[in-house]
Design a protein that fits this description.
globular; alpha/beta; 5-stranded mixed β-sheet; 11% strand; two-stranded parallel sheet; Serine Threonine Protein Phosphatase 5, Tetratricopeptide repeat; 2 domains; 53% helix; single chain
């Protein structure tokens, strides 16, 4: 069945499809964001029912008994032979011990990620930090700059960035020699080599986790849960623009436009060129008929996005497919893949398009790419199964 895609709103999470991880747009703040003590005017607790789950990140880095057993029994020989730092690094990066699987469906705390042996890159970073601390290692969290990926979750446009972890202390006196530290990163080294990174605090990591949970709740239609997680994220890190943006989306979906506008304007106070907050505010102002205020922001947004809004060609391709114009659908979807060749939804729809055009070999190729780049284990399994059925049919 063809799936309709609406224009959507923009949110930011900490998942990178190769997950996690987190996107905070680099930029200079024009004003100081509210301190945690002065956030109350931006909250509207009475408009939301109590959360359906505990909104609690106090156990984010808690170490479970099975994690302790892993360190003291399964990993003990490697830790003795390689040392604690190198031994843990090899266990995390080699895949031979933990066998971690990337899965962007839910952001997990350390114990959940270890038990499930899966998570997005933020979950795996939290797990790595918990194990490192249990071994008495010094750790440092880092945000990788200029690393953003765009995806769709229902009618949400999700922007994800990346974080990693440094085990040990960087030797700042060694003229660039980082031999005293090891960087744990769950992306291939070729993808992050040479990228700039900046240290971030544990409070920021906690806020990222809470914001991820808010966006995940939003994508499932659980508006109240999303509110409480976004609220908690801002209490953890009031200067995190992505959390303000999430709060604005929550308010907009609950029918509280004034509160939504205040949240979006906080995004732009912290990061004046934040594309997500700007696009959401333009959309909100336009819906309210305030075109005089939307126009200058819209012109600024157009100047910052010369190639058009993300997923514009994708939506045109779906509209063409829904109209049965498979040639036009193919052309639009191929243009979308020029923007992002790893976008699995476009690959899936292009596979369906090529099937309708009578080109099963091309369909198989794009379905294989969808399976390769899917952000969840369930998605990879689904697309792989579809590919196997298609290949079986082509044999016969």
């Amino acid at each position: 069945m063809l799936r309709r895609i609406s224009p959507g709103v923009f949110v930011t999470v900490c998942i990178v499809a190769s997950v996690a991880s987190v996107a905070l747009t680099a930029g200079c703040a024009s004003t100081t964001p509210p301190a945690a003590a002065s956030l109350e005017p931006f909250f509207h607790d009475a408009a939301f029912e109590p959360p359906s789950e505990p909104v609690d990140a106090s156990d984010l880095f808690a170490v479970s008994p099975e994690m302790i057993r892993f360190l003291r029994v399964e990993l003990a020989p490697m830790l003795r032979n390689e040392g604690r730092q190198r031994g843990l690094y090899e266990a995390l990066q080699s895949g031979g011990h933990l066998r971690l699987d990337y899965d962007a469906e839910q952001t997990r705390n350390a114990a959940q990620a270890f038990h499930d042996r899966s998570g997005n890159c933020l979950s795996l970073l939290i797990l790595s930090a918990a194990l490192g601390r249990e071994l008495g290692l010094q750790i440092m969290f880092q945000q990788v700059l200029d690393e953003e990926n765009w995806g769709l979750a229902g009618d949400l446009v999700v922007v994800s960035g990346h974080v990693n972890l440094v085990l040990g202390q960087r030797n700042s006196m060694a003229w660039g020699d980082d031999s005293q530290s090891l960087t744990v990163d769950f992306l291939p080294s070729s993808m992050v080599r040479g990228r700039r990174a900046r240290p971030i605090s544990e409070a920021t990591v906690r806020a990222m986790f809470q914001n991820n949970r808010a966006v995940e709740a939003l994508s499932r239609g659980r508006i109240a849960d999303a509110y409480w997680w976004a609220r908690a994220s801002l209490l953890s890190a009031p200067a995190m623009a992505s959390s303000w943006n999430t709060l604005g989306v929550v308010y907009q979906r609950r029918g509280l436009p004034e509160m939504a506008e205040a949240a979006y304007r906080q995004v732009l106070q912290i990061e004046p060129d934040n594309l997500r907050g700007m696009a959401n505010l333009v959309s909100l102002l336009t819906e309210q008929g305030r075109s005089d205020q939307a126009l200058p922001l819209g012109l600024r947004l157009a100047a910052l996005t010369p190639h058009g809004a993300p997923f514009h060609q994708f939506r045109l391709g779906l509209a063409a497919a829904q109209a049965g114009d498979w040639t036009a659908a193919r052309d639009h979807l191929l243009l979308e893949l020029q923007r992002d060749p790893t976008f699995p939804d476009a690959q899936v729809w292009l596979a369906q398009t090529y099937l309708n055009l009578g080109q099963p070999e091309q369909a198989q190729a794009h379905l294989a790419l969808a399976a390769k780049h899917s952000a969840s284990s369930a998605g990879r399994a689904l697309y792989s199964a579809k590919l196997e059925r298609l290949q079986a049919l082509s044999v016969h």
